[in-house]
Amino acid sequence: MSISTSTQYQYILVSQEGRVGTVQLNRPDALNALSPELMQELVEALEAFDADDAIGCMVLTGGEKVFAAGADIKKMASASAMDMLLVDQLARWDRIRKLHKPVVAAINGYALGGGCELAMMCDMIIAGETAKFGQPEIGIGVIPGAGGTQRLTRAVGKAKAMELILTGRQFSAQEALEMGLINKVVPAELTIEEAKNLAKAIAEKPAIAVRLGKEAILKAFDTTIEGGLDYERKLFYLLFASADQKEGMQAFMEKRPPVWTHS
């Protein structure tokens, strides 16, 4: 049992199946609003899975009708600019961005505001056909503050991001798929199963190659093509120091399935 699954949490549920660790947001009375307390538990659980050699991939999900309905507005409605700056509660979100292992989001119901931003922080998204996404912050006098303006724009392009963020309108799972924001739309009752199947397929691959593959892909968003290619090449060469590279290529030549040691 990992540290994450043995820890008692108030606002999340954690579980492990094979090499897949799952975190479920569990604050149904507040529509899984992303309070600082919930986010702290979420970050701690994800980091514990990230540090656990027995885990190869993670799944993040919410409830059947709501993934997360955004930030906890009641906790910030009366805050001043200095309050927000000094508390800097969004800083803990950066810790999710720095996770080494892939995270698959399984979305049913509403993923709005911070909930949509949290989904976009994951590396892949599986959505139930009734899922609804949106960045409605403009309707309360602010803009997305946990990466929405940046990640949505990179995923769907400037014009569409402008429309969605400046109108605040909700959009369906099918529209999200057509825009390239998510990986797949499935019947709502199959969402978590499909996300876990994807996570399992990834977790069965050699862990170091998965980690560096994720690293190289993310580098494409914050560097030039030349810089990205140089970075990719160095990671490619680095993998020749791993035992799994030797096993993988030997197995290929011997026409047998590889036996990964994740080392």
Notes on the protein architecture:
The longest helix has 16 residues, at 36-51. The protein is 45% helix and 16% strand. The strands form two sheets. It has a six-stranded mixed beta sheet with strand order 1-2-3-5-7-10, sandwiched between helices. β2, α2 (36-51) and β3 (57-61) form a beta-alpha-beta unit. It is built from twelve helices and ten strands. It has two domains: 3-203, 2-enoyl-CoA Hydratase, Chain A, domain 1, CATH 3.90.226; 207-254, Lyase 2-enoyl-coa Hydratase, Chain  A, domain 2, CATH 1.10.12. The chain is α/β, with parallel strands linked by helices and 263 residues long.
Compact summary:
This protein has 263 residues and is of the alpha/beta class. The chain contains twelve helices and ten strands.
Q: Which key terms come to mind for this protein?
A:
Lyase 2-enoyl-coa Hydratase, Chain  A, domain 2, 4-stranded mixed β-sheet, 263 residues, single chain, alpha/beta, 2-enoyl-CoA Hydratase, Chain A, domain 1, globular, 6-stranded mixed β-sheet, 16% strand
The portion of residues assigned to helices is: 40-55%
- Beta-strand portion reads 15-25%
Write down the Rg.
Answer: 19 Å
Number of strands: 10
CATH superfamily of the largest domain: 2-enoyl-CoA Hydratase, Chain A, domain 1
Distance between the termini: 21 Å
How would you classify the helix and strand content by structural class? alpha/beta
